[in-house]
Structures are given as structure tokens and as C-alpha cells.
Design a protein that fits this description.
Oligomer: single chain
Order of helices and strands: EHEHEEEHEHEHHEEEEEHEEEEEH
Strand order of the largest sheet: 2-1-3-6-7
Strand content: 25-35%
Largest sheet: 5 strands, parallel
Distance between the termini: 58 Å
Helix content: 25-40%
Structural class: alpha/beta
Radius of gyration: 21 Å
Number of helices: 8
């Protein structure tokens, strides 16, 4: 059983989560429902939960205030929030799960499947460090990618290119390569504001790492790691606009 706490100052929201949890009777043991950050800071160390459903705005505090004040912990966090583009992007960069309010039952079930799959490989401190970096405006972003043993952290500026492999994506830096179980479309959306460009249906490149461009019937670019990446005819004109 996953020992669970809900932290939310809106009763109808915590009731919704309780209702969804009741549909998984052999998965969760709810330890407490808490509606203030102060009570959470007192109760969480005593109750030692495995999982917290954490609202972002809790009266005049935030869920981020709670995470900063609670210190090193081993519980898992699933954020619950109304639509907030900036925070959601930070969650995606940092590989945190989140649920948009009003919480859809299918979204809830999907998150629980992911949670149960990698609960044993969890590293809260690594993820939190990345989250607080990614929440700072104008800060150079870091991305958290799952690995067989937990997570790897990459600076976005160090990513040279990405290549699709069915529902997986290969991520290339200068010295390493990772295979991640997410489609390249996920990274295309995530990195759209970070100088990345889709040159081909299977390739996404960091414009800042382009060394040379070779025109011809099959155009391609030479990247800073000496990889050759094709540019589709349909994408060529838009690619060249980055260099004019």
C-alpha cells in the first residue's frame, strides 16, 4: 500500500482525489488530508508518507514553499493545479507528475500507472533541485530523464540533437547518448523555446550546435559532435531562416 497524504486548501478538490483513490482500494492508504502548509510541515515528518498529492496554491503559501521548508525527504509528489503554463513546463523539464484541476479520472489512472512502475527508482532530491532551477525565470534549463537506475540530469544547452526511434527518443550530447521512453514529439514541444528545430520527422537539433550545412538533393547538417542530421525538403527554407 502507498501511504498517501493530500495537501489542498479546497475541500472539493481533496474530495475529488479521495474519490479517485477509492477506485484503487488495494493501492493507497490515506494517512491525512491537510489544508495548510504549516500543518503539513508538522504532520509529514511524523506520518512518513510515500506519496503526497500537493496543490500549488495553498492559502497564502505554495506547495513549493512546503517542499523548500520540509527539507530532504523520500516521498513522491504529484502536483495538482489549475492551468499554469510556466509551472507545468517546469514540471515537464523536471519529470514531475502533475494533474490538472478538475482532475480527469483517465489522467489520474495514467499517473498512477507511471508511479507504480518507477516508485523504487525515485530520487526526490535530484528532481527537486532541477524543479527549483526550472522555476526561475531566465534560468538556463535542465532536463530530467529517466534511466534504468533512476534519473539523469542534462543541461538543455548541452543537448546536441535528438532522434526518434518509434515511441522512444535517442538524446545525444558531446560524449553520451541516452534512450528515453518518450516520443520525440514530447521533446519537440518541451524544447520549442530553447533554440531547437525539427529538421525532419525523426530529428530535432539544437541550432546552437550546428557546425556546417551541406546543400544538395539531400541536405544535411554537421553537428558539433560530428553527427550528420538530414534536413527534409519541406523543412529546408525554415531551417535556413535561422542563419540569415
Amino acid at each position: 500500500m502507498i501511504k498517501t497524504i493530500i495537501i489542498d486548501d479546497e475541500k472539493h478538490c481533496s474530495d475529488r482525489i479521495l474519490n479517485l483513490i477509492e477506485q484503487h482500494p488495494n493501492t493507497f492508504k490515506v494517512l491525512a488530508v491537510i489544508d495548510t502548509v504549516g500543518e503539513a510541515l508538522n504532520s509529514v515528518p511524523q506520518l512518513q508518507p510515500d506519496l503526497i498529492f500537493l496543490d500549488i496554491k495553498i492559502h497564502d503559501k505554495t506547495g513549493f514553499d512546503f517542499l523548500q521548508d520540509i527539507g530532504p525527504s523520500n516521498f513522491r509528489v504529484i502536483f495538482t493545479t489549475a492551468f499554469d503554463n510556466f509551472a507545468i513546463k517546469a514540471f515537464k523539464f523536471s519529470a514531475f507528475d502533475y494533474l490538472l484541476k478538475p482532475i480527469d479520472s483517465d489522467d489520474f489512472n495514467d499517473v498512477i500507472v507511471r508511479l507504480k512502475a518507477d516508485l523504487s527508482h525515485f530520487n526526490m532530491q535530484n528532481q527537486l533541485q532541477n524543479l527549483f532551477i526550472n522555476l526561475k525565470p531566465n534560468q538556463k534549463k535542465v532536463i530530467t530523464i529517466p534511466s534504468l537506475t533512476g534519473f539523469e540530469t542534462l543541461k538543455v544547452e548541452d543537448i546536441i540533437h535528438l532522434e526518434a526511434d518509434t515511441n522512444y527518443t535517442h538524446i545525444f550530447t558531446k560524449d553520451d547518448k541516452w534512450m528515453v521512453s518518450k516520443p520525440i514529439k514530447f521533446y519537440e514541444d518541451l524544447l520549442a523555446d530553447n533554440a531547437f528545430f525539427k529538421t525532419h520527422k525523426s530529428h530535432l537539433i539544437n541550432i546552437d550546435h550546428v557546425k556546417k550545412y551541406y546543400k544538395g538533393k539531400q541536405s544535411y547538417v554537421l553537428m558539433s559532435n560530428d553527427a550528420q542530421v538530414p534536413i527534409s525538403v519541406r523543412r529546408k527554407d525554415e531551417f535556413l531562416k535561422h542563419f540569415t
